[in-house]
Amino acid sequence: MATQLTWQEIPRRFGSAAWLLPADEEAAPSSWERVRFVPYVIIPWLALYAFTSTLASHGTSFGMSFEDRLPIIGWTALLYQSIYVVIALAPWWVRTRRDLRRLMISSWMSMAVIFPFYWFVPSSAPRRPLLGHDSITQILGLERVAFPPIAAFPSFHVLWAVFLARAFKPRWIGWTYVAVIAVSCITTGQHYIADVVASMVIAPAFVEPERTWRILRYLMEWPAKSWHKEPRDSAARS
Hints:
Helix content is 64%, strand content 2%. The protein contains ten helices and two strands; from the N terminus they run H-H-H-E-H-H-E-H-H-H-H-H.
């Protein structure tokens, strides 16, 4: 009789890169486990984004007409760009190997799903005019030069913030940071509201990979269970 495939058995059955991950335990990560977050997560994300930026210079805008008239609040660029610093430092402030492990799994899963979505459903971000010549406005201008207005829907900025929020203690600090990043996406003119909302909707699937696997397994097994049940029901009626 066939055995059910569990979340824990996936690495054994498919030879996944489980050895790249910290152990699923409450001990503090080692320095090496923290350092390798950069080549295992950050660099692949940058490479995928760079590749995505070469595919197209435009895409569908998922914004509403009134959003193109919203003012840009220049100083919120510092909040928006803080995500880069927080991600880079994330492996150094997470407290446990379990937190670091789940952050890496969530990052890999989201990249595996979201970047192909960017390729097949190109999207663009708003680029409302920047007013002012202060240093913060210039920083936002550099952001626009470094990151073209593509791959906007859903917002990876918000996804990163949600992944990181899980490791914040106390938890309310993390979710406050998620709200700050979400709002700054709009106030800097880097994203539409729909981009932010879409990230909030899909984030739970990546934040809890075990739960996502259970749902996928149920969906895959349901047709087979239904097929086996129907012959027994027919035999009982006859």
